[in-house]
Amino acid sequence: MDASIEVAGLRKRFGATVALDGLSFTVTAGQVTGFVGPNGAGKSTTMRVIVGLDAADEGSATIGGRPYASLRHPLSHLGTLLDAAALQPSRSGRNHLLWLAHSQGLGAKRVDDVIEQAGLQSAARRKAGGYSLGMRQRLGLAAALLGDPAVLMLDEPFNGLDPEGIVWMRGFLRALAAEGRAVLVSSHLMSELQDTATHLVVIGRGQLVADAGVAELIAAASGGRVTLRTAARSDAMRVLAHSGATVTMSDRDALTVAGLGTGEVVAMLNEAAIPFTEISAHRATLEEAYMELTRDQVEFRATAAEEPSR
Ligand SMILES: Nc1ncnc2c1ncn2[C@@H]1O[C@H](COP(=O)(O)OP(=O)(O)OP(=O)(O)O)[C@@H](O)[C@H]1O
To answer: How many angstroms separate the alpha carbon of residue 170 from the centre of ligand 1?
Structure first.
């Protein structure tokens, strides 16, 4: 069975709400695919449809070419983290995993392996009801790994993790992908996915907005702009704007220049004897790339009247 998730033409309505509107994408082996979109875009519904918790009105979702419901030992094919709060509070983390393992014909050895992999050793014998959100995420991750699946699908796994936990999770997800697994990870915060996801599936209002490599999206959002650092900001702005460039202030002593290459900017500043300390091709962050892609997709956006006055 190949490590992939394939979603084709999914449509799903909840009453008058169209949650999924003809959504298609593929998650491939060997990389972390970020699954992102504004609130209400349809990420959770897509994941619920993939595992059969919601039925699609139209379209199909398959794991390695087969519908989830047809998999005999599903945990050995697809590991999921969908709702970290869904556990029996009086059971210890280890007992929760033992119970899950038992249902799939797996032994206690495998449980202890995933407890170690998820960094849960010190808490495994405590009641799960007393776990912090971060510990619940680790327990959810341990459960997802139980069947050593080729495909992982994790809904907001960074939620509730402290900065150290976020760094750990990033490395962990990269390592799982490096082993050849297909890893789909939903997130609200692009900064969490930076340095982790190499591919992004962006959705908005139940439709596909972008399905592309992270490097490609960042290059497109960087748009040939130049970042310039100078103490003589107003002089630089005047000279560059005079030649038709669009110049905006980006922070205290930095300008972003669109419409001219780095060489042209250097030549103009030298000619006008304007000093500068740094000049470089602008590299957009994943956050900027995402904001550009989803500008028209936000379901709940503050109207101009609601925005705080400056
Ligand atoms: N059980 C349900 N009943 C009614 N409407 C629902 C239900 N589940 C989801 N929706 C609606 O479907 C749309 C998609 O919701 P979904 O939770 O899939 O989005 P999401 O991208 O996961 O959002 P978030 O980032 O806020 O978690 C939303 O408009 C939501 O209100």
So the answer is: 26
- Residue with more model confidence, 128 or 1: 128
pLDDT single digits (tens) 23-78: 999 999 999 999 999 889 999 999 999 999 999 999 999 999 999 999 988 889 99
Query: What is the mean pLDDT of the segment spanning 130-155?
Result: 92
| Whole-angstrom distance, CA of residue 254 vs CA of residue 279 | 9
The 3-class secondary structure across the chain, one letter per residue, is CCCCEEEEEEEEEECCEEEEEEEEEEECCCEEEEEECCCCCCHHHHHHHHCCCCCCCEEEEEECCECHHHCCCHHHCEEEECCCCCCCCCCEHHHHHHHHHHHCCCCHHHHHHHHHHCCCHHHCCCEHHHCCHHHHHHHHHHHHHCCCCCEEEEECCCCCCCHHHHHHHHHHHHHHHHCCCEEEEECCCHHHHCCCCCEEEEEECCEEEEEEEHHHHHHHHHCCCEEEECCCHHHHHHHHHHCCCEEEEEECCEEEEECCCHHHHHHHHHHCCCCCCEEEECCCCHHHHHHHHHCCCCCCCCCHHHCCCC
Tell me which residues have their CB closer than 6 angstroms to ligand 1.
14, 17, 19, 37, 39-45
297 CA from centroid of ligand 1 (Å): 14
Q: What is the pLDDT of residues 237-289, one digit of tens each?
A: 999 999 889 999 887 789 999 989 899 999 999 999 999 999 998 888 888 88
Which residue matches tokens 């704007």?
A: 241
pLDDT at 302 over 50: no
What pLDDT band is residue 298 in, cutting at 50, 70 and 90?
Answer: low
Q: Which residue ranges form the domains of the chain, and what is each CATH number?
A: 5-77+149-219 (3.40.50.300), 225-283 (3.30.70)
Q: Which atom of ligand 1 is nearest to the CA of 188?
A: 25
